[in-house]
Design brief:
By secondary structure, this protein is an alpha/beta fold. The chain has helices at 12-23, 53-63, 78-91, 117-123, 177-186, 203-210, 232-240; strands at residues 4-8, 27-32, 45-48, 68-71, 94-98, 111-114, 129-133, 149-154, 167-170, 191-195, 215-218, 228-229. The structure holds NADP nicotinamide-adenine-dinucleotide phosphate.
């Protein structure tokens, strides 16, 4: 019997899961925040934009009669995950989070772990040329650091104006280790700032390791304690397999 599934998306694994669940015959709606102008669209139905908080999400879940809510949002998207927990609790829709494991440092890595973006801004030493791979939402937090050079890479430029001396690299992943090393060398980067997103985008970490550059690693925000799976296969098994149906 096909299930009705709402995926909170915006990640590669959300797209992969939607494709698999649609193929398995389920009714899948993926929700995107609507912040990207040209998002990669998943299989199945897609809706865009916020729900209007946890209550709005709860109303949507109830109105559309979903069986499952899969929170496959990015590990740093803390607000929507909190809303998902509240909304699932109110509606008794089964909630599962799909979240990739964090990256772990290797022996040769020179990571400086920090709790959040504010700490990352404060940690970059004066005179450094920092390579920011933190997306566009919070990149402006570094604008007050007029004592550092910045190379900021993201897919789309932020709406706000960035300091004129910053080098902005607008490009969509993936990147190879060679490309990352070439960029770091060409721009005179001597420190990487990134979020511990996990997943496949490790070329920048490998390049920093090879060049012996320090990495300011922003740790993940705390998310609510909910049932969490780390792979698309695990989620498929739960929803499509014996353990998952009926819930
Ligand atoms: P956030 O801070 O957790 O959420 C802010 C608000 O955006 C939420 O309260 C919700 O609005 C809306 N929202 C977020 N994700 C949504 C979704 N999938 N569907 C519908 N509404 C959503 O999220 P964020 O950090 O801004 O990230 C926004 C989206 O980008 C997420 O879906 C995430 O998966 C993706 N993303 C984020 C990052 C990152 O580093 N943060 C990186 C890559 C991709 P309402 O309260 O109105 O419902």
């Amino acid at each position: 019997m096909p299930a009705r599934i709402l995926i909170l998306g915006g990640t590669t694994e959300a797209r992969d899961l939607a494709a698999c669940l649609v193929r398995a015959g389920h009714h899948v709606v993926t929700s995107l925040a609507g912040v990207s102008t040209a998002p990669r669209l998943p299989a199945g139905e897609v809706r865009m934009g916020g729900f209007g908080g946890a209550s709005g999400l709860a109303s949507y879940l109830a109105a559309k009669n979903f069986d499952w809510l899969i929170d496959a949002t990015h590990p740093f998207a803390a607000q929507i995950s909190a809303h998902a927990q509240v909304a699932a609790g109110r509606t008794e829709v089964a909630l599962v989070r799909l979240e990739r494991p964090p990256w772990e440092p290797e022996a040769d890595d020179r990571w400086i772990p920090v709790a959040d973006m504010a700490a990352a801004v404060a940690t970059v030493p004066e005179g450094a040329t920092a390579f920011l791979t933190i997306g566009r939402k919070e990149v402006g937090a570094f604008a007050r650091r007029s004592d550092i050079g910045v190379v900021a890479r993201m897919i789309e430029a932020p709406a706000e104006a960035l300091p004129g001396n910053w080098r902005l690299v607008l490009v969509r992943p993936p990147f190879s280790v060679d490309e990352e090393m070439a960029l770091m060398r060409a721009e005179g980067v001597n420190l990487l700032v990134t979020k511990n997103a996990g997943g496949e985008g490790t070329a920048k970490l490998e390049a920093a390791r090879a060049l012996r550059l320090p990495v300011v690693m922003i740790e993940r925000p705390v998310k609510p304690q909910v049932r969490t799976l780390t792979s698309v296969e695990g989620a498929l098994e739960l929803i499509g397999g014996q353990n998952g149906w009926p819930r």
